[in-house]
Design a protein that fits this description.
- 31% of the residues lie in helices and 25% in strands.
- With 249 residues, it is an alpha+beta fold.
Length: 249
């Protein structure tokens, strides 16, 4: 039933600075508010790979720079804790042909799956050992928008009907964004452009592809995770962090 997808079933726990290593059959999520991150104070030379410095230089807006740095700092903390070596020896590279972010140690592709999302400076990163299909999406829900107008233009009629059933504007926003984060997470899981998944019914697609989803709301953000294996949902570890807790020695 579609109503099941609106339950906040993804548990967010407050982790510690030691919660960065991955273990078998575990899918971990890290959340960080990087909107106030001072990039000048971060020792990026000891964190980013030379390729990543080049990508960062292409980010012109401060928020985009903050989100990129915070997401890579989380990834590097996990890789250093899991595999050892220096943070700068690891590189994150987006493979356009595969439609996914890949993690490398020198010339070796690491057996790690990753999905990340960011919105208004808030960053979410999901990682697991092995080759797993999953997608994560994060969206801020308090943006003033014409939700019904947008839904009628992009969404499936059944999805529009669900939004119309919500009387209050806040409820319509929550419904609109939950559908949106599910669509984005699904697109990342299936490695398809989001444009191909806007009009179809997202609930039917999740079921027909035998996928599993969990979602939650946190700090005026909606977060959805979709995964091909239900076993990984038994090992979710979510942590809320700040940029100071991501420093790498």
């Amino acid at each position: 039933m579609p109503i099941d997808y609106f339950a906040n079933t993804l548990t967010i726990q407050h982790g510690t600075e030691n919660d960065f290593s991955l273990s078998e059959k575990q899918l971990a999520i890290w959340l960080c508010d990087g909107s106030n991150a001072d990039l000048q104070a971060l020792n990026l030379k000891q964190i980013l790979h030379p390729d990543e410095h080049c990508i960062l230089a292409q980010r012109k807006k401060q928020q985009a720079q903050q989100e990129y740095c915070i997401s890579r700092m989380i990834i590097k903390r996990v890789l250093v804790s899991t595999f050892g070596a220096n943070a700068t020896e690891f590189a994150s590279r987006f493979d356009a042909e595969q439609g996914q972010l890949q993690l490398w140690h020198h010339d070796q592709l690491l057996p790690v799956s990753v999905s990340l999302s960011h919105s208004n400076g808030f960053v979410a990163v999901a990682m697991s050992l092995g080759n797993h299909a999953f997608g994560l999406d994060l969206e801020r829900t308090n943006k003033p928008r014409a939700f019904l107008k947008l839904a009628k233009h992009f969404y499936h009629p059944d999805e529009v009907a669900l939004i119309e059933q919500s009387a209050a504007n806040e409820q319509q926003a929550a419904c609109f964004y939950r559908i949106w984060t599910l669509k984005e997470a699904l697109a990342k899981t299936l490695k398809k452009p989001i444009a191909q998944l806007l009009r179809p019914n997202v609930f039917e697609l999740i079921q027909s592809n035998q996928l599993h989803s969990q979602s939650t709301q946190i700090n005026q953000f909606d977060l959805s995770l979709i995964c091909a294996s239900p076993l990984e949902f038994k090992h979710i570890q979510a942590s809320t962090l700040n940029e100071k807790s991501l420093s790498i020695n």
